[in-house]
Design brief:
This protein is of the alpha/beta class and about 170 residues long. The chain has one domain: Rossmann fold, CATH 3.40.50. It contains six helices and six strands, in the order E-H-E-H-E-H-E-H-E-H-E-H. A six-stranded parallel beta sheet has the order 1-6-5-2-3-4, with helices on both faces. Bound molecules: magnesium ion (MG).
Length: about 170
């Protein structure tokens, strides 16, 4: 199912980055808003520490955002990585640009985002491993809030199908 993430984590700060690195991933494409920072808000210390920790681990990181350049650039500069702005996610174009900038094969890259119909769908369409991170904050712009309502049945189906396959696996 193209709308289902390959992995779900409570939030981007609780992703098993070490484990993913050991699995062969070395590039990460991040959404900003409500994935690693508040919607339209600046990076905080926790956020800066995350990016520093990832680069120490050996990851190359990239920002992929539908937001405009001033917001995306100032955030990317703050955490110290490159960026693609006005990405028009779920369009594949921005993902291709981001992977090219990372300079590695896309099977070594995973994407972390909080929205199904932009972040996850775009990654899946691009053949990039998609990690859905639960949103960090409740406050967000109205158009995003509307998409949350549309996400509900998809996430419900995702969790049900995971529960079923987990249960099925236990039977063997
Ligand atoms: Mg977002």
């Amino acid at each position: 199912m193209i709308l289902f993430p390959d992995m779900y984590v409570k939030n981007a700060y609780e992703l098993p980055y070490e484990e993913m690195h050991a699995r062969g991933f070395s590039g990460i494409i991040f959404d900003i808003d409500n994935t690693v920072a508040p919607d339209n808000g600046p990076a905080d210390d926790k956020c800066r520490q995350l990016f520093a920790k990832l680069s120490k681990m050996g990851y190359k990181t990239m920002i992929l955002s539908n937001n405009d350049e001033p917001r995306v650039k100032s955030f990317a500069d703050d955490v110290g990585c490159d960026y693609v702005f006005k990405a028009a996610k779920p369009s594949r174009e921005g993902y291709a640009k981001a992977v090219k900038k990372l300079g590695m094969k896309k099977d070594r890259v995973f994407m972390v985002g909080d929205q199904i119909f932009t972040d996850i769908l775009g990654a899946k369409r691009s053949g990039i491993f998609a990690v859905m991170a639960g949103k960090l904050y409740w406050k967000e712009r109205a158009h995003i809030y509307l998409k949350r309502i549309l996400e509900l049945p998809v996430m419900a189906a995702y969790f049900i199908s995971n529960a079923v396959s987990h249960f099925g696996a236990k039977q063997h």
